[in-house]
Write a structure and sequence with these properties.
The complex is a heterodimer of chains A (267) and B (101).
Chain A (H helix, E strand, L loop, with lengths): L1 H22 L1 E2 L5 E6 L2 E6 L2 E2 L13 H12 L4 E2 L5 H11 L6 H11 L13 H22 L16 H12 L3 H14 L2 H8 L5 H8 L1 H10 L3 H24 L2 H9 L2
Antiparallel strand pairs in A: 1-5, 2-3, 3-4
Helix pairs in contact in A: 3-7, 3-11, 4-6, 4-7, 7-8, 7-11, 8-9, 9-11
Chain B lengths: L2 H15 L9 H14 L6 H31 L7 H7 L10
The chains are: A mainly alpha (267), B mainly alpha (101).
Protein backbone atom coordinates (compact mmCIF):
# COMPACT_ATOMS: atom_id res chain seq x y z
CA UNK A 1 0.00 0.00 0.00
CA UNK A 2 2.75 2.36 1.00
CA UNK A 3 4.95 1.59 -2.01
CA UNK A 4 1.98 1.86 -4.25
CA UNK A 5 1.37 5.45 -3.10
CA UNK A 6 4.94 6.51 -3.81
CA UNK A 7 4.83 5.09 -7.26
CA UNK A 8 1.58 6.84 -8.01
CA UNK A 9 2.92 10.21 -6.97
CA UNK A 10 6.15 9.91 -8.87
CA UNK A 11 4.34 8.84 -12.02
CA UNK A 12 2.04 11.84 -12.09
CA UNK A 13 4.93 14.10 -11.33
CA UNK A 14 7.02 12.80 -14.19
CA UNK A 15 4.25 13.40 -16.66
CA UNK A 16 3.25 16.67 -15.06
CA UNK A 17 6.68 18.22 -15.09
CA UNK A 18 7.57 17.21 -18.64
CA UNK A 19 4.37 18.76 -20.01
CA UNK A 20 4.97 21.75 -17.83
CA UNK A 21 8.43 22.31 -19.32
CA UNK A 22 7.20 21.99 -22.86
CA UNK A 23 4.32 24.42 -22.68
CA UNK A 24 5.79 27.26 -20.65
CA UNK A 25 8.01 30.17 -21.46
CA UNK A 26 9.72 32.50 -19.07
CA UNK A 27 8.10 35.86 -18.55
CA UNK A 28 9.84 38.23 -20.96
CA UNK A 29 8.04 41.51 -20.23
CA UNK A 30 7.69 43.80 -17.27
CA UNK A 31 4.54 45.81 -17.88
CA UNK A 32 1.27 45.12 -19.62
CA UNK A 33 -1.18 47.60 -21.04
CA UNK A 34 -3.96 48.10 -23.53
CA UNK A 35 -4.07 50.24 -26.66
CA UNK A 36 -7.14 51.48 -28.46
CA UNK A 37 -7.05 51.25 -32.24
CA UNK A 38 -10.22 52.10 -34.16
CA UNK A 39 -13.02 50.40 -32.25
CA UNK A 40 -10.91 47.62 -30.84
CA UNK A 41 -8.36 47.09 -28.13
CA UNK A 42 -4.90 45.55 -28.34
CA UNK A 43 -2.79 44.16 -25.50
CA UNK A 44 0.79 45.36 -25.04
CA UNK A 45 3.57 43.48 -23.26
CA UNK A 46 6.16 46.24 -22.77
CA UNK A 47 6.57 47.61 -26.31
CA UNK A 48 5.41 44.39 -28.01
CA UNK A 49 1.87 43.67 -29.09
CA UNK A 50 0.21 40.43 -28.07
CA UNK A 51 -0.52 38.06 -30.95
CA UNK A 52 -2.74 35.01 -31.26
CA UNK A 53 -1.26 31.50 -31.76
CA UNK A 54 -1.85 31.85 -35.53
CA UNK A 55 0.13 35.07 -35.55
CA UNK A 56 -2.75 37.52 -35.93
CA UNK A 57 -2.80 40.72 -33.92
CA UNK A 58 -4.79 40.06 -30.73
CA UNK A 59 -7.93 42.23 -30.76
CA UNK A 60 -10.98 42.48 -28.53
CA UNK A 61 -13.96 44.80 -28.73
CA UNK A 62 -14.74 45.51 -25.09
CA UNK A 63 -12.43 47.57 -22.91
CA UNK A 64 -13.04 45.63 -19.66
CA UNK A 65 -12.29 42.38 -21.47
CA UNK A 66 -9.02 43.82 -22.77
CA UNK A 67 -8.15 44.93 -19.24
CA UNK A 68 -8.95 41.50 -17.84
CA UNK A 69 -6.74 39.85 -20.48
CA UNK A 70 -3.92 42.32 -19.72
CA UNK A 71 -4.33 41.50 -16.02
CA UNK A 72 -4.05 37.79 -16.81
CA UNK A 73 -0.72 38.39 -18.53
CA UNK A 74 0.43 40.76 -15.82
CA UNK A 75 -0.28 38.21 -13.09
CA UNK A 76 2.09 35.61 -14.58
CA UNK A 77 5.03 34.93 -12.32
CA UNK A 78 8.36 33.60 -13.68
CA UNK A 79 6.71 31.17 -16.09
CA UNK A 80 3.91 32.02 -18.47
CA UNK A 81 1.24 29.37 -17.96
CA UNK A 82 -1.15 29.86 -20.84
CA UNK A 83 -3.32 26.85 -20.05
CA UNK A 84 -4.72 28.70 -17.03
CA UNK A 85 -5.48 31.94 -18.89
CA UNK A 86 -9.05 31.19 -19.83
CA UNK A 87 -10.03 34.65 -21.05
CA UNK A 88 -7.00 34.84 -23.35
CA UNK A 89 -7.78 31.32 -24.57
CA UNK A 90 -11.38 32.22 -25.37
CA UNK A 91 -10.35 35.37 -27.27
CA UNK A 92 -7.72 33.39 -29.21
CA UNK A 93 -10.20 30.68 -30.13
CA UNK A 94 -12.71 33.19 -31.43
CA UNK A 95 -10.14 35.14 -33.42
CA UNK A 96 -8.21 32.21 -34.91
CA UNK A 97 -11.18 29.82 -35.10
CA UNK A 98 -8.84 26.80 -35.36
CA UNK A 99 -11.65 24.34 -36.13
CA UNK A 100 -13.24 26.56 -38.80
CA UNK A 101 -16.63 26.42 -37.14
CA UNK A 102 -19.53 28.65 -38.10
CA UNK A 103 -21.91 30.12 -35.58
CA UNK A 104 -24.58 27.68 -36.77
CA UNK A 105 -22.26 24.68 -36.19
CA UNK A 106 -21.68 25.75 -32.61
CA UNK A 107 -25.34 26.50 -31.91
CA UNK A 108 -26.30 23.05 -33.21
CA UNK A 109 -23.63 21.46 -31.06
CA UNK A 110 -24.97 23.22 -27.98
CA UNK A 111 -28.61 22.45 -28.73
CA UNK A 112 -27.88 18.77 -29.38
CA UNK A 113 -25.97 18.65 -26.11
CA UNK A 114 -29.33 19.15 -24.37
CA UNK A 115 -30.17 15.51 -25.11
CA UNK A 116 -27.47 14.48 -22.63
CA UNK A 117 -27.63 17.42 -20.24
CA UNK A 118 -26.31 16.43 -16.80
CA UNK A 119 -29.21 17.76 -14.78
CA UNK A 120 -31.86 16.12 -16.98
CA UNK A 121 -30.56 12.68 -16.04
CA UNK A 122 -31.12 11.93 -12.40
CA UNK A 123 -30.00 8.72 -10.77
CA UNK A 124 -32.48 6.78 -8.63
CA UNK A 125 -30.17 4.19 -7.09
CA UNK A 126 -29.65 6.17 -3.93
CA UNK A 127 -32.53 7.80 -2.04
CA UNK A 128 -30.52 10.60 -0.44
CA UNK A 129 -28.86 11.56 -3.69
CA UNK A 130 -32.23 11.40 -5.42
CA UNK A 131 -33.70 13.83 -2.89
CA UNK A 132 -30.75 16.15 -3.31
CA UNK A 133 -31.17 16.15 -7.07
CA UNK A 134 -34.87 16.89 -6.77
CA UNK A 135 -34.38 19.83 -4.40
CA UNK A 136 -31.36 21.27 -6.23
CA UNK A 137 -31.87 20.48 -9.91
CA UNK A 138 -35.63 20.55 -10.42
CA UNK A 139 -36.05 24.29 -9.69
CA UNK A 140 -33.35 25.06 -12.29
CA UNK A 141 -35.14 22.97 -14.92
CA UNK A 142 -38.39 24.78 -14.06
CA UNK A 143 -36.67 28.17 -14.37
CA UNK A 144 -35.13 27.16 -17.71
CA UNK A 145 -38.50 26.08 -19.14
CA UNK A 146 -40.10 29.31 -18.00
CA UNK A 147 -37.29 31.56 -19.20
CA UNK A 148 -36.88 30.06 -22.68
CA UNK A 149 -40.49 28.89 -23.19
CA UNK A 150 -39.54 25.25 -23.64
CA UNK A 151 -40.81 21.99 -22.16
CA UNK A 152 -37.82 19.94 -21.03
CA UNK A 153 -38.49 16.93 -18.83
CA UNK A 154 -36.06 15.17 -16.57
CA UNK A 155 -35.40 11.48 -16.90
CA UNK A 156 -35.00 9.08 -14.00
CA UNK A 157 -34.94 5.75 -15.83
CA UNK A 158 -33.28 6.83 -19.09
CA UNK A 159 -36.70 6.46 -20.70
CA UNK A 160 -37.59 10.04 -21.49
CA UNK A 161 -37.67 11.03 -25.16
CA UNK A 162 -34.95 13.52 -26.10
CA UNK A 163 -35.71 17.18 -26.21
CA UNK A 164 -38.37 17.91 -28.82
CA UNK A 165 -37.39 19.43 -32.17
CA UNK A 166 -39.60 22.38 -31.40
CA UNK A 167 -37.75 23.15 -28.17
CA UNK A 168 -34.43 22.82 -29.95
CA UNK A 169 -35.56 25.29 -32.58
CA UNK A 170 -36.66 27.74 -29.90
CA UNK A 171 -33.33 27.54 -28.16
CA UNK A 172 -31.41 27.77 -31.46
CA UNK A 173 -33.17 31.02 -32.23
CA UNK A 174 -32.20 32.41 -28.86
CA UNK A 175 -28.54 31.41 -29.22
CA UNK A 176 -28.32 32.68 -32.80
CA UNK A 177 -29.18 36.16 -31.52
CA UNK A 178 -25.75 36.31 -29.84
CA UNK A 179 -22.57 37.10 -31.76
CA UNK A 180 -19.94 34.54 -32.73
CA UNK A 181 -17.71 35.29 -29.76
CA UNK A 182 -20.50 34.84 -27.20
CA UNK A 183 -21.63 31.56 -28.81
CA UNK A 184 -18.05 30.30 -28.53
CA UNK A 185 -18.19 31.22 -24.86
CA UNK A 186 -21.38 29.18 -24.40
CA UNK A 187 -19.69 26.16 -25.98
CA UNK A 188 -16.74 26.45 -23.60
CA UNK A 189 -19.16 26.66 -20.68
CA UNK A 190 -21.18 23.65 -21.83
CA UNK A 191 -17.99 21.60 -22.15
CA UNK A 192 -16.95 22.71 -18.67
CA UNK A 193 -20.20 21.91 -16.87
CA UNK A 194 -21.55 19.15 -19.15
CA UNK A 195 -24.82 21.02 -18.96
CA UNK A 196 -26.46 23.56 -21.27
CA UNK A 197 -29.04 24.43 -18.64
CA UNK A 198 -26.51 25.29 -15.93
CA UNK A 199 -24.34 27.25 -18.36
CA UNK A 200 -27.28 29.42 -19.39
CA UNK A 201 -28.39 29.76 -15.76
CA UNK A 202 -24.99 31.31 -15.01
CA UNK A 203 -24.78 33.56 -18.09
CA UNK A 204 -28.37 34.73 -17.52
CA UNK A 205 -27.32 35.63 -13.99
CA UNK A 206 -29.88 33.28 -12.45
CA UNK A 207 -27.13 31.80 -10.29
CA UNK A 208 -23.49 32.51 -9.49
CA UNK A 209 -20.74 30.54 -11.24
CA UNK A 210 -19.86 28.93 -7.89
CA UNK A 211 -23.40 27.64 -7.53
CA UNK A 212 -23.56 26.39 -11.12
CA UNK A 213 -20.31 24.45 -10.65
CA UNK A 214 -21.60 23.03 -7.37
CA UNK A 215 -24.78 21.81 -9.07
CA UNK A 216 -22.84 20.28 -11.95
CA UNK A 217 -20.72 18.37 -9.40
CA UNK A 218 -23.69 17.44 -7.22
CA UNK A 219 -23.08 13.70 -7.21
CA UNK A 220 -19.35 14.16 -6.61
CA UNK A 221 -20.10 16.48 -3.69
CA UNK A 222 -22.55 13.95 -2.30
CA UNK A 223 -20.05 11.11 -2.60
CA UNK A 224 -17.17 13.10 -1.06
CA UNK A 225 -19.52 13.90 1.83
CA UNK A 226 -19.69 10.13 2.38
CA UNK A 227 -16.24 8.94 1.50
CA UNK A 228 -13.99 11.91 2.19
CA UNK A 229 -12.44 14.65 0.18
CA UNK A 230 -9.02 14.68 -1.47
CA UNK A 231 -7.60 18.14 -1.96
CA UNK A 232 -5.54 17.46 -5.07
CA UNK A 233 -8.47 15.90 -6.87
CA UNK A 234 -11.79 17.30 -5.67
CA UNK A 235 -10.77 20.80 -4.61
CA UNK A 236 -8.53 21.24 -7.63
CA UNK A 237 -11.34 20.14 -9.90
CA UNK A 238 -13.82 22.50 -8.26
CA UNK A 239 -11.55 25.55 -8.45
CA UNK A 240 -10.60 24.85 -12.04
CA UNK A 241 -14.20 24.50 -13.13
CA UNK A 242 -15.11 27.68 -11.26
CA UNK A 243 -12.39 29.71 -12.92
CA UNK A 244 -13.37 28.31 -16.33
CA UNK A 245 -17.04 29.06 -15.86
CA UNK A 246 -16.45 32.53 -14.39
CA UNK A 247 -14.32 33.28 -17.47
CA UNK A 248 -17.21 32.15 -19.68
CA UNK A 249 -19.73 34.35 -17.87
CA UNK A 250 -17.46 37.38 -18.17
CA UNK A 251 -16.65 36.63 -21.79
CA UNK A 252 -20.28 36.23 -22.85
CA UNK A 253 -21.25 39.35 -20.92
CA UNK A 254 -18.54 41.54 -22.44
CA UNK A 255 -19.36 40.27 -25.90
CA UNK A 256 -23.13 40.62 -25.68
CA UNK A 257 -25.18 43.33 -27.32
CA UNK A 258 -26.64 44.79 -24.17
CA UNK A 259 -23.20 45.60 -22.86
CA UNK A 260 -22.09 47.44 -25.98
CA UNK A 261 -25.20 49.59 -26.13
CA UNK A 262 -24.51 50.54 -22.54
CA UNK A 263 -20.97 51.57 -23.41
CA UNK A 264 -22.14 53.87 -26.18
CA UNK A 265 -24.18 55.91 -23.72
CA UNK A 266 -20.99 56.72 -21.92
CA UNK A 267 -19.76 60.22 -22.61
CA UNK B 1 -21.98 39.63 0.12
CA UNK B 2 -22.25 43.42 0.13
CA UNK B 3 -20.94 45.46 -2.79
CA UNK B 4 -18.13 46.86 -0.69
CA UNK B 5 -17.03 43.39 0.38
CA UNK B 6 -16.96 42.31 -3.25
CA UNK B 7 -14.82 45.29 -4.19
CA UNK B 8 -12.46 44.61 -1.30
CA UNK B 9 -12.25 40.98 -2.38
CA UNK B 10 -11.37 41.91 -5.96
CA UNK B 11 -8.67 44.32 -4.80
CA UNK B 12 -7.25 41.73 -2.45
CA UNK B 13 -7.05 39.19 -5.27
CA UNK B 14 -5.38 41.73 -7.56
CA UNK B 15 -2.80 42.36 -4.85
CA UNK B 16 -2.16 38.62 -4.53
CA UNK B 17 -1.74 38.03 -8.22
CA UNK B 18 -0.02 41.15 -9.55
CA UNK B 19 3.67 41.91 -9.13
CA UNK B 20 3.09 45.68 -8.66
CA UNK B 21 4.00 47.08 -5.30
CA UNK B 22 1.09 49.51 -5.39
CA UNK B 23 -2.12 49.24 -7.36
CA UNK B 24 -2.52 53.00 -7.66
CA UNK B 25 -1.25 53.09 -11.25
CA UNK B 26 -2.64 49.75 -12.35
CA UNK B 27 -4.99 50.16 -15.32
CA UNK B 28 -7.40 47.41 -14.29
CA UNK B 29 -7.64 48.73 -10.74
CA UNK B 30 -8.36 52.25 -11.98
CA UNK B 31 -11.01 51.00 -14.37
CA UNK B 32 -12.75 49.03 -11.61
CA UNK B 33 -12.72 52.04 -9.25
CA UNK B 34 -14.15 54.27 -11.94
CA UNK B 35 -16.94 51.80 -12.63
CA UNK B 36 -17.77 51.59 -8.94
CA UNK B 37 -17.91 55.37 -8.63
CA UNK B 38 -20.06 55.64 -11.73
CA UNK B 39 -22.59 53.07 -10.59
CA UNK B 40 -22.76 54.39 -7.07
CA UNK B 41 -24.44 57.51 -8.36
CA UNK B 42 -26.92 55.63 -10.53
CA UNK B 43 -30.51 56.49 -9.70
CA UNK B 44 -33.30 54.02 -9.08
CA UNK B 45 -34.38 53.80 -12.69
CA UNK B 46 -31.30 51.87 -13.83
CA UNK B 47 -31.08 49.97 -10.61
CA UNK B 48 -31.08 46.79 -12.65
CA UNK B 49 -27.79 47.78 -14.18
CA UNK B 50 -26.36 48.19 -10.72
CA UNK B 51 -27.30 44.64 -9.79
CA UNK B 52 -25.84 43.49 -13.06
CA UNK B 53 -22.55 45.18 -12.22
CA UNK B 54 -22.55 43.55 -8.81
CA UNK B 55 -23.03 40.13 -10.37
CA UNK B 56 -20.20 40.73 -12.84
CA UNK B 57 -17.92 42.02 -10.08
CA UNK B 58 -18.62 38.87 -8.06
CA UNK B 59 -17.96 36.75 -11.12
CA UNK B 60 -14.62 38.47 -11.64
CA UNK B 61 -13.81 37.90 -7.98
CA UNK B 62 -14.64 34.21 -8.45
CA UNK B 63 -12.43 34.11 -11.53
CA UNK B 64 -9.43 35.64 -9.79
CA UNK B 65 -9.81 33.61 -6.63
CA UNK B 66 -10.45 30.24 -8.26
CA UNK B 67 -7.56 30.74 -10.69
CA UNK B 68 -5.25 31.51 -7.78
CA UNK B 69 -6.45 28.62 -5.64
CA UNK B 70 -6.26 26.06 -8.44
CA UNK B 71 -2.70 27.21 -9.15
CA UNK B 72 -1.81 26.97 -5.46
CA UNK B 73 -3.18 23.43 -5.16
CA UNK B 74 -1.42 22.49 -8.38
CA UNK B 75 1.89 23.90 -7.16
CA UNK B 76 1.59 22.08 -3.88
CA UNK B 77 0.84 18.65 -5.26
CA UNK B 78 1.98 18.43 -8.87
CA UNK B 79 5.04 18.97 -10.96
CA UNK B 80 7.70 18.94 -8.26
CA UNK B 81 9.55 15.89 -9.50
CA UNK B 82 10.03 12.85 -7.30
CA UNK B 83 9.26 13.27 -3.61
CA UNK B 84 11.35 11.86 -0.81
CA UNK B 85 9.93 8.95 1.15
CA UNK B 86 9.45 11.21 4.19
CA UNK B 87 7.46 13.78 2.19
CA UNK B 88 5.26 11.14 0.67
CA UNK B 89 4.64 9.51 4.01
CA UNK B 90 3.66 12.82 5.55
CA UNK B 91 1.33 13.56 2.66
CA UNK B 92 -0.75 10.44 3.24
CA UNK B 93 -0.53 10.72 7.03
CA UNK B 94 1.96 7.93 7.72
CA UNK B 95 5.12 7.86 9.77
CA UNK B 96 8.31 6.00 8.95
CA UNK B 97 9.37 3.17 11.29
CA UNK B 98 12.20 5.19 12.84
CA UNK B 99 10.19 8.41 13.34
CA UNK B 100 9.16 9.21 16.92
CA UNK B 101 5.52 8.29 17.56
Amino acid sequence: MFLCEIKFFSLTNENGSSDFEKTTRNRFYKNTGILKSDDKFEITLDQRKLKTPKGNLFLVEAEPLALAVATEWHSQKNKIIQSKMHLTTLCNTVQDNPNNLTKLDIVQYIVNYLDTDTILFQGNENDDLMKLQITEWDPVIAWFNERFKVHLKKSVQMDVPPVSEQDKATLSRHLMSYNFAAVNGFMYGVDTLKSVILTLAATERYMSPEKAVLLSRLEEEYQTGHWGRVEWAHDLNQQELQSRLAAVVLFVYFNSQSYKSQQKNKV
Amino acid sequence: MSKLQTLRGVIRELRYSLPDRTLKDNIAFRYIMNQYRKYRTTDQQICKAQEEMDFIANTYLCYLRSSRLSQEIHDEFHGKGERSIEDTARMVGFKLPHDPK
